Amino acid sequence: MEKIVVALGGNAILTDNPSAEGQIQALRETAGYLVELVKQDKQLIVSHGNGPQVGNLLLQQSASDSEKNPAMPLDTCVAMTQGSIGYWLQKSLMEALHAEGLEKSAVSLITQIVVDPEDPAFDQPSKPIGPFVDQEEAEKQMKETDEIFIEDSGRGYRKVVPSPQPIDIVEAEVIQAMVDQGIIPIAAGGGGIPVLSDGERYVGVEAVIDKDFTSAKLAELIDADTLLILTGVSHAYINYNQTDELKIEDISVGEMKDYIEQGHFGAGSMLPKVKAAVSFVENKPEGKAVITSLENIGKFLEEGSATVITS
Q1: Is there a catalytic annotation at residue 11?
Q2: For the CA atoms of 2, 183, 46, 19, what is the dihedral angle to 10 degrees?
Q3: What are the Aspartate/glutamate/uridylate kinase domain coordinates in residue numbering (predicted)?
Q4: For 161-187, how does the pLDDT look when each residue is reduced to its tens digit (9 = 90+)?
Q5: CA angle centred on 171, ends 84 and 179, rounded to 5°
Q6: Does the annotation mark 211 as catalytic?
Q7: Number of other CB atoms surrounding residue 89 within 10 Å
Q8: Whole-angstrom Cα distance, residue 71 to residue 62?
Q9: pTM of the entire predicted model
């Protein structure tokens, strides 16, 4: 049975309705697409983003922060959104599986990701999180704390945190055991909870890990056959949104690396996805990485229509 790590983008979870019910409805639709893969005898391991959700949670934490009700740290907020999104997705997948008469279980797992304390990202925080503030408030907070704020997209200032690379997954053996039992794990949500190891315990750290890089590391550790990165478009493109736009279909790692060096992919959108895809195939040359949209899954299964990266 082909093992596929499916990395869900934010559009698979959050639409225009940020309420719990709105996100549950979006995940019900997502689950319907994922079950098409299960019906094709694929063993799924599902990861997901949490950017909007953890941002909203940080706003709530900030608004209620007090001596008696202190705001939770970032690693705990990542765990909280792993739990809420995992709960919604687990329920939605179970409903969709049972509707198709498929006797399988889906289980969400709080997942810790080991990062290197010497990762250069810790010296260059770059990932914006939390609420927007004006320049005066940003300067005030920077004076009072060790936090760093940057101007973000002309909308104000936001705190930035490091975005280190994942080097290991604490629960990898548990995830593998679930896969061996035919269970669908929902793991490494939001890129996972970043932790440092001191040899005896794991300590949460103020950082955010890119979920596509974590998904690639997960696929590597459990020896998956395919890394399927689901995003808002059916293919990756060169010259995107230009008159000579060209979709990328079957492509080698070497060719994709050339396109990366030529600057064809946006740093905040497609670039981490293609880099994660390349990383997985380089670590498993017999595997493949696929970039496509939820809506294109049927076409991909029938015709192979997607961006497919192989060695």
Answers
A1: yes
A2: 150
A3: 3-284
A4: 899 999 999 999 999 999 999 999 999
A5: 85
A6: yes
A7: 27
A8: 6
A9: 0.91
